[in-house]
UniProtKB/TrEMBL annotation:
Pfam family, one: Ring_hydroxyl_B
GO molecular function: dioxygenase activity
Classification via PANTHER family: BLR3401 PROTEIN
CDD domains per UniProt: ring_hydroxylating_dioxygenases_beta
Keywords: Dioxygenase, Oxidoreductase
The protein's name: Aromatic-ring-hydroxylating dioxygenase subunit beta
Segments crossing the lipid bilayer: none
Family membership: Belongs to the bacterial ring-hydroxylating dioxygenase beta subunit family.
The species this protein was found in: Pigmentiphaga soli
Superkingdom: Bacteria
Amino acid sequence: MTERGGPAPDLAEIQRFVYREARLLDERRFAEWRELFAEDGAYWVPTRHDQASPDEAVSIFYDTRKTMQARIDRLAHPDAHVQAPPSHTTHLVSNIELEPEPAPGGAWIAHAAFVMAEYRHTEPRWYAGRYQYRLLRDGAALKIALKKVVLVDCIRSFTAMAVYL
């Protein structure tokens, strides 16, 4: 069971966690990436900068661990046309910050800026924005209760996205 709160992580621990997450995504190790999430964790990409809840408007992504697994299974399938050939990505993460106090409920809030480059078919694509993490302790490990990805251009129409930002 995931513990709410726990010892405060320090910035170095948060940086290692966020950089490892980015590497897992770039190496297409999606099953290991999913394990970074708490059992009730979610990955959310809203369509508005000020969107406070996924219930307010349609989201670009809103995946629970169950729907993450379905997406991961589809990405691994040899007939996944959206990933033929597979995308290559690089996540550049910077400006990592940790809120000094836990949020109500005991989660630790971290922020970061990112740019993600994706190359698929013959087309490079670029995404940029801000991450917000709600992190919990599971023993000594950190787990993601919520990863919110606010894209700079979240209000625009997007072509099909198959990989995680």
